[in-house]
Structures are given as structure tokens and as C-alpha cells.
User: What shape does this take?
Amino acid sequence: MTLKEYSQIMIPEIEKALKSTILKDIPDPFPGLQEMMNYHFGWLENNNSQKSQGKQIRPIILLLCNAVCGGDWKKALPAAISIELIHNFSLIHDDIEDKSDLRRGRQTLWKIYGIPQAINTGDAMFSLAQINMLKVGNEINKQIGFDALQRLNETCLILTGGQNLDISFEKETRVSLERYLLMIGGKTAALLSASSEIGAITALTSENNRNALRNYGNALGLAFQAWDDWLGIWGEEEQTGKSTSSDLMTGKKSLPILFALEKDEEFLQIYQDEGATQENYRKLLSMLENNGAKKFTEDIAKQYTDTALKSLEETKVSDKNAFQSLLELTDLLIKRNN
Ligand code: GRG
Assistant: This one.
């Protein structure tokens, strides 16, 4: 089976299980709560697209890692749903904390229903995630259910740590690379690492495979975020020719910017005194290219991509098709353009 074929089977199963947990696992019928969850995933609209429910890379990675290690991926489905619910919970809360109006090209949940209802919907999703991870105990065995649940909650704590750093960075002018990596390690890499490791845990595989896949997910997350930072400046520019939503204009402390603030006095001066404006945008952009910030970001992304691929090579593979598909997905994620 190819990645396309796996996706064609897995994505409808993920969607079905997500819809079912929202409909059936909330003990009493609370249609308002269910409506808000369905809004978030884009299921209230008739012409809903894959984009509105997200790429679902975490559950797919979990299920593929499970298959790579010889698991029966259908039994790992509740774990995959649990991870996807935690991801969406974190997006809902992040959008409130960042005051973001748009998510996946649509109005954010809080913009439609208000902040109190959005916080509450996120909280309900968090609980559904816990309930779904516990179902792993019934599908596989109780100990595996507890192991996966423990890994999930440790990851949630790391996510909040990453978010804590990210929020703190808004008030800081200079952020060291070390603290930045700790932040993206928490915000982005931790959940991808948990996804791949829980894929291994639910396949009852060896300690070696569990470690290799945990490291794979972590490095993949760091590479994914480094490319995201690259796209936040040059992707926007190349794809739309517009500068207004570039990370350079919004003041986000992404990898190229923190590098330039640290290494280029002139960039620091302009950025601090004037901020990025329509007038000086071109100048700051070319400074990021000349002072090595663009190349530095590309090098970091490549370095973590190599680490991710090396960790994958350390896995003892039970299903070669699943492994090839995981490689294909890895390649897509670190060369992504959305
Ligand atoms: C889990 C208890 C707990 C708290 C969460 C709010 C918070 C604390 C953390 C923020 C985490 C966050 C929003 C990280 C961003 C991660 C990221 C790369 C999001 C984009 O992922 P994609 O591209 O999104 O997979 P789609 O839309 O495809 O699902």
C-alpha cells in the first residue's frame, strides 16, 4: 500500500471516530457543546473541505508507526483520536491566547461563539481525549492503556511549558537559540514525538523501536517548525507576493528573525526603532538573506530532517509498505507549502 492508499482508508476512519466520540461519549446530550466542536472541525458547513478539519498528520503518523512496528492499526484508532483531540484543544486555546481571528481559513471558534464558550469547548475536547486514550486499555490491554495515557499527560505538560515560553518571548527583544529550541520542542515537537511513540507503544513493540520512533517524531517536529518559520517569511512572499502577513511584519520571533537580532546590529537597530513597515520591508528581507538568517534556518531544518531519517533507520520494520509510506509522509511534511 502507498501513502495515498493508507490515507484513503485512514482519514475516513479518523473522521468517523472523531464524529462518534463527539456524539456518543458526552454522557448527556448537550447539543450546544457538540455544535461548537462540530463548528471547529468545519462539519456544520455543507461544503466542508479537508482543510477545515486539518491535515490530521498526528493521527496518521501514530497509525503508520503502529503498522511499521507490526501493530493492528485499527486497534490504535482511539489513541490516534485522542492525540488529534489534544491537538485541536491546543489550537482552540492558542487562538484565544493569541487573539487569532482565522484558523484553517475560517473564523476561529472564539470569534463565532465568544471566549468563555471557546474555552469550555476546548476543555470538553481535553476530556474526550482522556476518555479515548483510556479506550486503548479495552482494545489492547489495560497496561498499554495506562502507558499511553501517562505519555499523553506528560506531553500535555510539555506543551504548556512550550506555550509559556512562547508567550514570554513576546515581551523579550532577544531570544537565544537554545530557549527557542526548547519552546518549539514543547509547542510543536512534543506532540509529534508522543504520536509516533504511542504508535509504537500500542503495537507492543521493542524498547528500541519505541525510542527510535520517539526520537523520529521529536526531530520531525523541530524540522517541521523550522520550515514553518522559513515559510512564514519566504513562503508567503513566493506564493502570494504579499508581505502583510509575513512573520517579519507581524513581529513574530521566528528562527530567521531571532538569528538576525542576535547577529546583525543594523537589523536589530531598525527592527527595534522602526519595526518592520511596508517601507522598510524589502530592506529587512534582503538583510535576512545577506546576514545568513535564511541559510541558518534552512540548515537547522535540514539538520533535524537528517536526525529524523536516521532515527527511522534505527527502527526494526515489520511492515515495509507502512515504512515507505511514513518516509513519503516525512518528505511531504518537511517540504510542505501550506
Ligand atoms: C495540552 C494541556 C494542554 C495545553 C496546551 C495552548 C497550548 C497549551 C499550546 C499551544 C500549542 C500549539 C498551538 C502549537 C502549534 C503546533 C502546530 C505546528 C500547529 C499546526 O499544526 P498543523 O499544521 O495543523 O498540523 P492542522 O490545521 O493541519 O491540524
